[in-house]
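Q: How would the structure tokens look for this protein?
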Amino acid sequence: MAESGARPANRESKQAAAVEAAAAAGFVVPSEVYGPPRCRDCGYVLLGVGGQGTAHECPECGRAFDPLRPNTVDWRPPFVFWRYWLPPTILSCAIAVLLTVLFVAGGSWGWALILGVPIMVGSVTGFGVRARYLVALAVAVVAVSAGVLGVFSLNFVGVLCGALFGLLLLVPTFVGVVCGVFLKQVLRQGSWPMRGYLPGMVPGLLAILIGHAVDQATPPPAIETVRTSVIIDAAPDDVDAELRYYESVEGPVPWWCRIGLPRPIGVEGAMVRVGDVQRCLYSNGGELAKGTTRREPGRELAFVVLQQTNVENNSIELVDGRFVLEPIGSGHTRLTLETRYRPKLQARAVWRPIEHNIASSLHRHVIAGVAEAIEGSGAAVAWVEVAPAPDAAEEAP
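A: Here is the predicted structure in token form.
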């Protein structure tokens, strides 16, 4: 017990000695003192500087101070970056990069990665960085960003998936920082000595173990289906004549597509008859090949994805899709777009809403392209999104 209390007792004795020396030198001592009075500019120790009838100036840099005004001097020890911030920053970055790459390379995108890793990084940072919450949080965000950049540079994720992944890690990172700072305060008040950064890893290790147990108990993700239906002011035959895939839609794409997804640069082949294959080429060298499996003019166009290369391969596996057309009244068509994919990202409660929103946004972009193509033939076209028709809820073959 004597050894465990040596460091706090030693620190308190140094503070008491600093208070006594400053008071003996004629300084008015504030309530919080961490060391002898120092120059606010250069950190020079001001004990014994100046006297009766002499100017109170720092002999090192010339800055004036008043012993009777505590706020004119600095009562804290000089900040040393390599001692206070650099070690936990390097350690946090190393942990973030190592764990993120290991989990992603192993195909584990579950709760151990989404929650465990950022809590580990945040707790180590909050425990090790000798600064306030905001500084510790900033260091933790830098470390988590390093982990995301690590998997991106190794081509494990695309720009869109990597950006979303980084945003998802912010909240658990903050939780980890709070845990690390709280743990540090608790250990400071007790008699158990802090040993480096090991205690700061405890919250993260617990989160990773619990997340991994949940991931192992969760079955593999099932195939997901996303449907978007609209009513178009055009006859089914007119709509059918302008059906096209995302890569063939002219006009500007949504801003997040320009930033996060590879850009389509060309289309080869057709989609008119059963057996036709259309290859879609992308700016990053990626390729999607879609084969027509069913074609009923004015009613349905179904396709299967034959090849998916460098197009978010580590996030989803595209399976198939279809366009379903249904006449509504006179001169109106219910158009339903359906996409089926096999998810590769666990933690479905987090990723499913994101994936469905992205797919629905792409569907609306395609629908807008179809409507603009019909308008180009001389017809004024309007469309409004509605709930999918009951017959469109059947699984595509």
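The two ends are 72 Å apart (CA to CA).

Residues 1-8, 391-397 have pLDDT under 50 and may be disordered.

Upvote if useful.
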